[in-house]
Structure formats: structure tokens, C-alpha cells
Design brief:
The complex is a heterodimer of chains A (298) and B (228). Chain A is mainly β and 298 residues long. Chain A is built from one helix and 25 strands. Chain A has a 25-stranded mixed β-sheet that branches. The chains are: A mainly beta (298), B mainly alpha (228). The interface between A and B is large, with 46 and 43 residues.
Amino acid sequence: MRSIIQRTLCLGSVLLVLPLVAAAQTEIERRVPASADGTVAISNIAGSVVVTGWDRDEVEVTGTLGRNVEELEVESDARGVEIEVKLPRRNRGGGGSAHLEIRVPRRSRVEVETVSAEITADELEGALDLESVSGSITVAGQPAAVRAETVSGLIEVEADTARISAATVSGSITLTGTRGEVEAEAVSGNITVKSARDLERADLEVVSGQIAFTGSLAPDVDFSASCHSGTIELTLPEATSARVVAESFSGRIDNEFGPEARRVDRYAPGKELSFTLGSGQGRIELETFSGAITLRRR
Amino acid sequence: MTNQDTMSCRETQAVLDELVDGQLSAARERRVREHLAGCEACRHEETALRRLLAATAELPRSLEPPTDLWPGIVPRLRQRRFATFTLGRSSGWRGWLLQAVAAVVFMGLGAVLSQLLVSPAISPMPGAGEPLALGTAAAAPAEFGILEAEYLRAKEDLWLTAYRGRRDLPPVIQELVERNLRIIDEAIRELRGALQANPGDRQLESLLLAHHRKEINLLQRLARGSEV
């Protein structure tokens, strides 16, 4: 008898909870017309935003809204499409997250802003402008240009794009297969550029993190990297053609291409290294305050 | 002009320094100028920057740095603490949150700035402590001091405009931002110390100004959510 009562109470509890769980999340599916190369602006707070390109002239939004989400606003006009997750002014109890999967015309300009929601963009050919506070940003595909900014989130771009601008405070930035122009900035995070292909211009700056670069540079490259207390490590192919200038106030400078760094002044700790690779067409400038600079031969 | 070539105000203002210095590639300069042709706000920023550079270029090399700069700044900080801040757009939570982040950051920055202003050992400019021996051939050029003063003034403006928006903030983000501002501040202190021992060192001056710029970029990025 007692076990029957217990089982009944347990089953009843489950039956009571199930509708609440179901009500906690709302499935969504919306579609609006969009121009082939218009702007799609998306804002979400928590959860995730996955943006994928497709070949239709419309924007489709699917996913789930948390129980504390007031509404999902989707508006389409001549200027473009706006998608915004709206929360009540006083959002107590949490649950104010939304997981959005959004399909947009492939050549759309996509702008995404989140607080902690992760951002993923793929199969897009337009320009991307992605910003989050603590959410990570991941980009693949062939966007025309990428601008990604976070405070603490990770930024990973493995895309065939001609222009990347990435900035973080304490997250890390990883750029793979980069070509064209790249700007990356971090305070305490690391910047890693891997498998760069004929990079034309680079401006990499970190205060206390590390900068690591591997890949090839265009013949007339304009490359600069700067750290305060972090390290800079460049791994370059033998065929690189550039005038190299490396300076450090108190850090080491190691060079596998031959010439050694020299003291700037017999009374000062600073070192500098200046030499030419190949025909010296391009320009590579590296500077640190106390971090080490290493040039490796690939 | 396709949608892909259009630059935003953010992108344009981020490269105005390079535009004025003639350091942009031809293609990029074309895109920037196209944006400027249609944007009064960005044209205003460009004009202000060119005027600043023109003003510093006209200064005589032997100019003695102003000695009364810093005593004037502290009272201004206190007076402007409750300056009105108007949101650029009414997108509730986003502008609110980023404004709150900026405000907390700026409170920390205000403490940092106060330290800089009152501590002679790390004074960024002569007048608040022992004056640097500027005005000699081996000393830092006058325009470096003036540029640094402009950066510090820009930080002051950022702090003051966001002060009013201080609200609840996720503790982890608050702590992270404050920690990174301390990292930048520590780097600035090290550089300033090195520069005092090695006045006129162009590499140190370049790094110091770059760190001021980073700090401003961080503050601007935090406040930008309420401006666009």
C-alpha cells in the first residue's frame, strides 16, 4: 500500500513537471522575405546563434526560446531583416536564453550581437560583423570580410576571406588559412595565425599574451606584431622576401635565419635586429617591451 | 557599389589614423572615402583628427610642457562625475548592460587615473611631481607629451560619459575587465618608468601610446553598445 502511494506520488510529480518543462521552452519557426545581398541583424543575450547561408531570398529562424524570453521579434523591410530576442525588463529567475538557427541568403551582410550566446557562422559570402561579451565566435566558409569582437569569448576563424579584424580582451584568437589582410588585438589573450596563405598585411597586438604566426607572406607584405610582456614567434618559409626589423627593450631576440640581435646601446638593455630576407620587398616589424621574439625557419 | 564594399562607421573610424597618415592601400582608402562622402559624423571625426595633427605639427620643438595641466583635471573629473549620458538607441538590455560594464570599468579606471594624477613617481606629465627634463635635444619630443595628454583626456571623457549607467553586472565579467585594465595599467607604468630612464626612446614612446590606444579601444568597445 505504502509503495503504491509512493509510486503514485512520484508519477504524479512527473506528470506535473512535464508540462512545466515543455512550457519552459518554446519552439519557433518563422520566415520572412529578404534580398539576396541585404543586411540581417541579429541580437540575442544568452544561448546560441547559428547563422548559415542558403540560396533562397528569405530568412528562416528556427530554434527554441527559454521560458523567460518575452518574445522573438523578426522584422523585414527595405533596409533588411532584424531579429531580436526580447527579455522582460526585470528578468528574474534566469531562463532568458534562446537557441536560434538562422538561414539567410548567402550574400547577406550579417551582424550579430550577443552577451553570452555563442555565435557560429558558416556558408556565408557576405561581410560578417560579430560581437559578443563572453560568447565564443566561430566562423567558417567564404565570407567577404570578418569583424569579430569579444571580451572573454574565443574567436576562431577558419575561413577563406580577404579581410579579418578580430579583437578580444582575455579570450584567444585563432585564425586558420588567413589571406589578404588581418588585424588582431588582445589584452591578455593569445593570437595564433596558422597556415596563412600569401598574407598581404597583418597588424597583431597583444599586451600580455602571445603571438604565434605560421604561414607564407605576399612579396610586398606589410607585417607588424607588438607585445608588451608576451612573446612573438614567427615561423616563415625560406622563400620569404622582406626587410625584418625586430626590437625589444629587455626581451630576447632569437633568429634562425642567421643574423643576431645586437644591443642598442652599451648602457641600455634594449636589443634590435635588422636584416633582409630574399629581395627585401616586404616589411616585417616586431617589437616587445619584455617578451621574447623568435624567428623560425620552416 | 555593392553591399559588401560598404564600410560601417565603426570600421571607418578604426582606420582614420591610417587614412590621415596615408597608410591605407588604394582600395581601402577608396572604401573609406566613399563612406566619408555619405557620413557627416565620420567626416567630423576625420576633421577633428586632422586639426589635432596640424596643431601639434605647428608647435615649436623647444616648447616647455604645461605645468598646470594635472591640477586642473582632478576638479574637472569630480565636477563632471554626474554628466548626463544619452543612449544612442533605445535597445533596452543591450545598451544597458554594456553601459553598466563600461561604468564599472570606468570606476576602476577613475581610481587608476586618480593614482596617476596624484602620484608624482608615476606622473604622466610634468607638473604633478618632478618635471622631466623636456625641451632638450635628447628628451621626448613635445608632440609625444601632447598626444599622451590627448589620450588621457579621451579616457576621461569615456569614464565620465558612462558613469551614470552603473548597474548590476555579472561578477565574472566585471572582474575580468578590471583585471585586464590593471594589466594595461601595469604595462603603462612599466613603459613610463622605462621612458623616464630613457627619455626620447622612440620605441618606448610608440609602445606607450599604443597601450593608451588599447585602453581607449577597450573602453570604447564596452561603451559602444549604447552609442550605435
